[in-house]
Write a structure and sequence with these properties.
By secondary structure, the chain is an alpha+beta fold. It has three helices and five strands; from the N terminus they run ααβββββα. It comes from Desulfonema magnum.
Length: 98
């Protein structure tokens, strides 16, 4: 099961913030991240990872349903690379210090 935005709001609420303040915090954080990515800036969250905007060139592609060849337009995509600390926590949860 995926962690949803409302789940994150609930966890922030458990830290002692009001429900409205928790929503405002999460919405504000997500808006900052979205705005920076829209401007082409990378977002580095220390100990978590880095969101990067990559430019993809126009290229040949194929419709998998029909097999038809087509040209894919140039576009920007967001990639995520987790930090070494997060990778270690995921791979060795018993060694992580909470």
């Amino acid at each position: 099961m995926a962690l949803t935005k409302s789940d994150i709001v609930a966890k922030v609420h458990e830290l002692g913030f009001t429900k409205k303040k928790s929503i405002d915090i999460i919405e504000g954080l997500l808006e900052i991240i979205k705005r920076e990515l829209e401007e082409g800036e990378d977002v580095l969250i220390s100990g978590f990872g880095k969101f990067c905007v990559k430019n993809k060139k126009k290229r040949r592609g194929r419709n998998p349903a029909t097999g038809e060849d087509l040209m894919l337009r140039k576009r920007r995509v967001v990639t995520f690379k987790c930090s070494g600390k997060l990778r270690n926590k995921i791979n060795h949860p018993e060694q992580s210090d909470n």
